[in-house]
Specification:
Ribosomal Protein S5, domain 2, Alpha-Beta Plaits, about 40% helix, globular, binds alpha-D-galactopyranose
Length: about 400
């Protein structure tokens, strides 16, 4: 089912580590986000999709209360006790420990486990490798111990693991996409109600290509939290005039325009971006429904411009990549994707032109910015699933 080396190396490492087969093998994909950036924590709309890059988990229950984790990517192991653990300096085990910590808070009590995991989602590229790890781990534990937790509730738990244990104040988009993705479909999610709808991504002549800028800004976490606070500050001011507002989700463009003087320039720009980005998600869904590639591409570019000038979370490298992609007639749309300050750009590229596009971008990036560019074509896949490891 896959030509990826990871499921096999995860299973082999598991057998070496424990002397037996895992009870369960789980594939937990990363995600792209077609449009709707920084809207999830403002209770707005997002349009992500799960992709063919994933983390694989081999897991079994133990007869004691010990935790044995092995990371293939970090070539490292962690051992501890399920009833007493703290955040670790190694960092990678924290994504697993966080899920156990949140399960226990809700009264679900897994006992000891063996976990071997690894995969091909690049880290720091904005493809949500950490959400895939948290969601995949929860999915495996839910299955193994029969907790009966629904997928949307697993997404909430995974978000809490990231917020409370890892300490990153992210929204729910990434976990929801990993758990609820569907092959060849984008997932429109209302981040307030968690209602969702699948939109077929019927692009016979086009595909999505990611250009990984290789930039991983240290700033991401602190700037992310600052943006959240700026949005909250905007809501607090607007609420004094429009008391029914709970979040930027409830704000109309006219409200921001009429109250512009009461908002600082920065807060005004942030609010405007979020309100417009929410509208773009709804328009993008219509464009997908109508197979209107041109409109869809324009919306991607408008989103990038908003991220660059309004929300100010892009960087010179991703701006460069988007500008150059858009001067190519084979690319109807492009934008920076994810939390920001680097990571990948998402490019909608004519299928026949993909190889030429990737080569051109790599050469340009090297020539002008003296940096190496890694490009990936991505396919939209199903969300987290249990995999029959005899078939691998
Ligand atoms: C990160 C967060 C998400 C979302 C995006 C921006 O990926 O994890 O919750 O806020 O940034 O859209």
């Amino acid at each position: 089912m896959t030509n990826n080396q990871y499921p096999e190396s995860v299973i082999q490492a598991f057998r070496r580590h424990t002397g037996s087969d895992p009870a369960i093998l789980v594939r937990a994909p990363g995600r792209i986000n077609l449009i709707g950036e920084h809207t999830d924590y403002n209770e707005g709309f997002v349009l992500p999709a799960a992709i063919d890059k994933a983390v694989w988990f081999a897991v079994s229950a133990r007869n004691d209360d010990l935790l044995h984790f092995q990371s293939i990517n970090f070539q490292d192991v962690y051992s501890g006790e399920i009833k007493h653990f703290n955040i670790t300096e190694k960092r990678w085990p924290n994504y697993l420990l966080g899920t156990i910590s949140e399960l226990r808070k809700d009264g679900f009590l897994p006992h000891g486990i063996n976990v071997v995991f690894g995969g091909d989602i690049p880290t720091g590229a904005g493809l949500s490798s950490s959400a895939a790890v948290e969601s995949g781990m929860l999915f495996a534990l839910n299955d193994l111990f029969g907790f009966g937790i629904s997928r949307p509730d697993l997404a909430r738990l995974a978000q809490r693991a990231e917020n409370n244990f890892v300490g990153m104040n992210c929204g729910i988009m990434d976990m929801f996409a990993s758990l609820m993705g569907r092959a060849d479909h984008a997932l429109k999610l209302d981040c307030r109600s968690l209602e969702f709808e699948y939109f077929p991504v019927n692009l016979p002549d086009h595909t999505f290509v990611l250009c990984d800028s290789g930039v991983k800004h240290q700033l991401v976490d602190s700037e992310y939290n600052t943006r959240r606070r700026e949005c909250e500050a905007g809501v607090a001011v607007l609420k004094t005039v429009f008391p029914d507002i709970q979040s930027l989700r409830d704000v109309e463009l006219e409200m921001i325009l009429s109250e512009k003087k009461r908002l600082t320039e920065v807060v005004y720009k942030r609010c405007l971006f979020v309100v417009e980005e929410n509208k773009r998600v709804l328009s993008a869904c219509n464009a997908l429904k109508n197979n209107d590639l041109k409109r869809f591409g324009e919306l991607l570019y408008q989103s990038h411009q908003g991220l660059q000038h309004g929300y100010q979370v892009t960087c010179p490298e991703t701006d460069f990549l988007v500008e150059h992609a858009l001067s190519d007639p084979d690319v109807p749309g492009a934008r920076q994707m994810g939390g920001g300050f680097g990571g990948c750009t998402l490019n909608l590229v004519r299928r026949e032109a993909v190889a030429g596009f990737q080569e051109k971008m790599r050469v340009l990036y090297k020539e002008k910015l003296k940096r190496s560019l890694v490009c990936y074509s991505v396919e939209i896949t199903d969300g987290i699933e249990k995999v029959d490891f005899d078939a691998i």
